[in-house]
Task: structure prediction
Amino acid sequence: MSEDDLGSSAVALTAELVGIDSVSPSLAPGSPGEAAIVAVLTERLTGAGYRVERVADDPARPSLVAVRDGSRPGRCVVLNGHLDTVPTDGMDAPFRARVEGDRMYGRGTSDMKGGVAGLVVAAERLAALDAPGRLVVVLVSDEEDGSVGAEAVLARLHELAGIPDACLIAEPTWLDVAQAHRGYELMRVQLVGRAAHSSQPAEAVDVVPVVAAILAAVKRADEALASADADPQLDRGSLMTTVVRAGSAPFTVAAAAELMVERRTLPSESPDAGLVGLEAIVGSVDHAGCEVAVSSVMRRAPWQLAPSGGSADLAAGLSRALAQRGRPVARRGFPYWMESALWEEAGVPTVVCGPAGGGLHAVDEWVDLEQLRLYPAVVVDAVLELLDAQD
Result:
């Protein structure tokens, strides 16, 4: 199969996958989840000679693990992507792939059904070439929310696939190699005062002034982070309040409030920089008689590409394969979190590189078809090189 054929196959498969509604039901209740798209890709990978197993606590939200062993010994490489998408609010025909010029529009085109299609086509080609070693395709649910799919797969990874030498995640990077990404911690601040009629405020403990003071203190802390020395790949950490809820009725002094505060973290920072920092910020504010509690809702670590080992070898192979096709590769950081951090924490050296476009999480999402056509052949070359490498 020629490179042009690989590219055409990736474009066709992307359009097919966009046509399958896999919006995350944890983000849009009532949405179907990933079962239908897993069924399509299970049939496709089984037809290519892979042993496929579904991993799921919830049948509506399965992940797919496909394994193939070559006839010759070699290393083990994982190809990974996610199958869920964000909701489609405001989109016109979100599940109809539309091509305009060198762009394909539709929900999931860039994030990340294009990358998934490229990996699947590459996996089919590697199977046809009887690539040495073990190739594992892992396509997960729930990346856009809680990463339940990735966590379930990683809990059984050694049982299902052994010990991988490297993992390639096809998140959209414009075919650059990700050098690092930020982590985050989502935290909750809860305030309890005492209600009273708004005509008798002296009888109340009003949470609103305390909320205002915390909001101002969080803003000042974010400004301090913004003035710190920049990370060469990731710029700076950040802190912001994303949700504020207070009060219950127009003529009642507010007796309860809740704030959600998000801290974006750098690899150089302490893992508990978010919670410890917010506790200090809240502690510096006059509580004015209110009870105030700070807690962590979710924490995800930042990530950096390892300087050596399987991921460094795979990153170098991707760079060579792209350069051979006239596309120099940059190494750069990304401000948002990816599941590469979970794979690295599980002991799997990880690389992030995939085709991109624009409109991620927006109404005009698109993927660059030139990148999408190029991607499968690049993956085949880089993965084949790593699978055949001797330790």
